Amino acid sequence: MPSWLIVILCAIGAVALFVIGMSLTIMIKGHFIESEISTNRNMQRLGIKCAVQESREDSGQVDCKDIGCSGNCSACDIEESQKERLHEK
After folding, report:
1. How many CA atoms lie within 13 A of 51 on its CB side?
2. pTM for the whole thing?
3. How far apart are the first and last CA of the chain?
4. DSSP state of 20
5. How far, in Å, are 7, 37, 46 from residue 29 at the CA level?
6. Angle at Cα 19 formed by Cα 13 and Cα 20, nearest 5°?
7. For residues 61 and 67, is the Cβ–Cβ distance under 8 A?
8. What is the Cα–Cα distance from 34 to 17, expressed in whole angstroms?
9. pLDDT tens, position by position, 1-51
10. Quick check: 38 and 70 in contact, CB under 8 A?
């Protein structure tokens, strides 16, 4: 058996195991894994915050909640919020 075929079969096998693992997680838990800070109660309970929100709090800038961030890092876009502030002035 050629070596390229072994590599392809191993890759297909690895992807298949990943898909089966994710499917079992969804079937057992009954929902998708909550990986966003804004939706995961355990992360909120532990006080974990969005990286952008933490850096703004450390530097003394505007709190993310003032610009509509709810702990979801994708909603805390530094460049977009700076553009919005420039347009408001």
Report:
1. 2
2. 0.41
3. 69
4. H
5. 33, 19, 21
6. 90
7. no
8. 21
9. 899 999 999 999 999 999 998 888 888 888 777 777 777 888 888 888 777
10. yes
